[in-house]
Amino acid sequence: MIFRGRAFLFGDDIDTDAIIPARYLTTTDPDELKKHCMEDADPGFPSQVRSGDIIVAGKNFGCGSSREHAPIAIKAAGISCVIAPSFARIFFRNSFNMGLPIFETADASKGINQGDLIEVDADSGRVTNLTTGTQFLSRPIPEFMQELIEDGGLIEHIRKRGTI
Amino acid sequence: MDRTIAEKILLEHTHTKEFSPGDIIRVNVDVALANDITAPLAIQAFEAGGTGRISRPDSIVFVLDHFTPNKDIASANQCRYVREFAKKHGIMNFYDAGRCGVEHALLPEEGLVLPGDFIIGADSHTCTYGALGAFSTGVGSTDLAAAIMTRQAWIKVPESMKFIFNGELQPWVGGKDLMLYLIGDIGVDGALYRVMEIEGRAISELDLSNRLTMSNMAIEAGGKAGIIAADEKTQDYVKPRAKRPFTVYRSDPDARYESIREYDCSLIEPQVAFPHSPENTRGISEVGEVWLDQVFIGSCTNGRIEDLRIAAGIMRGKTVARDLRCLILPATPRVFREAEDEGLIKIFLEAGAILGPPSCGPCLGGHLGILARGEKALATTNRNFVGRMGDPASDVYLCGPAVAAASAITGRISSPSEVMS
Ligand code: SF4
């Protein structure tokens, strides 16, 4: 699977309150949540993001609360995948459980500028900056998580296989 | 043998006889928890999952604590959705208005979480129960739905880090200060994916309340769990509350740790975390002059009776600073009753504090004390991210109950010894 989109850059330790502030958690509706996605980190994000775009962030992306509203809001905003050197652990689980592709790359966030056109090959883990021509390799996704993505998330996985 | 507590609990709860860090294993879940924010998504995922069957209703706990009492129509509808599901499926451990408190203060109090358990909760501070010697970790709503369906969860076997606290505790220093100090040392991703095992002479001397505060904030260092081995104090706390048997595990002497760190408590003064990160910590003597608009005492971190006793001891006979709002939310109905019986509520009201119902309330900027643009608050909570307690242009500082109470009196971040001298 290939993802292609413009890069939206964020710094280190972007927390779930920045991804979707708690004041909007009185709904689970993706269309409502996406209107406020990332707004405390970049107020222009909800209006500028287009389908297929890619979030390129610093270390420990998604730290803080366990709210699945965070990957839901990101998916609903049209983001095709997230790239960061590391992810907070609950965000990491949630993303795979819900089928939001995320890629751990040690240095991609250093070689990408806001708005660069990025291509991610999910199978090989290769990240290509089409604007500058540079390439990075992301960490391989463990087999179990590949299964989760293939099955379309954890619930579908259980439905298909009868167990986790 | 060479196993850590975490490994022993996982082995007891999984089918494999051997595993190494990094392996993904299936684990049997003793307790699965969700709240009014995360349960609705879990229920939706459960309904979408199709089987319609709950594996073990008695292992599920729902607590409507975040927006309770319901702050608006949307939150009321969310709670109603959870309430109806709980009724339909016979979920006995359902905590609604009047019985509900902040989940992580409530579950230990009710004896629902026990040493040796494997617990997941759709709330990041589920790591709190590590203080009882359990493996307890936060997950998302989909994980919770899967546990409701199968009573299982998947987990990547973590490495453990050991943190040893020795030496004499300084005046006004509690579990919160030790943990803020630790997070200041290793950073908000210093324990990412790993189990934090906390021990040492100073930890043995702490009561359960202070230990729960420490395990509560393991997630603020990125940790998967924050485990403190169950000792006699733990068993004295748990035994009268437990309604099922439990097992006490200790790490083997030659257990493997990814790293070991030691701290000397005699060098640790009361701590304050500056905006906008729990790792941004300073000792109280290095804070400088920070004037405050609001002080909040409560939350799953420091809203227990022991915290309120410390705060009342400082506020007794004194008055909250003129231009400051001081909010106090006892974490559970029982804490509220005890505070009333002990005369603490009277002390707070006479000092001019505002008492609120057991709820997460302002901790996550939900309701009951939201910050305006440019305002500064000092809170006994666990997070001070941008916008955490209200307007994105407000500032949150974190501390323990003693510094919070002292600062409510002076109007600026202050050492308790300044107020008590
Ligand atoms: S008190 Fe705060 S940290 Fe604790 S469960 Fe509630 S919102 Fe979360």
Tell me what the structure shows.
- Chain A is α/β, with parallel strands linked by helices and 164 residues long.
- Helices cover 29% and strands 18% of the residues of chain A.
- The radius of gyration of chain A is 15 Å and the shape is globular.
- By secondary structure, chain B is of the alpha/beta class.
- Chain B has 2 domains: 5-263, Aconitase, domain 3, CATH 3.30.499; 271-420, Aconitase, domain 3 (2-Layer Sandwich), CATH 3.30.499.
- Helix content of chain B is 32%, strand content 18%.
- Chain B has helices at residues 5-13, 39-49, 73-88, 103-109, 141-150, 175-186, 201-205, 208-216, 232-238, 299-302, 305-315, 333-341, 344-351, 401-410, 416-420, and strands at 24-28, 31-35, 60-63, 93-95, 118-121, 135-138, 152-156, 160-166, 195-199, 225-227, 259-264, 271-273, 281-283, 294-297, 325-328, 354-355, 376-379, 395-398.
- Chain B starts with a helix and ends with a helix.
- The chains are: A alpha/beta (164), B alpha/beta (421).
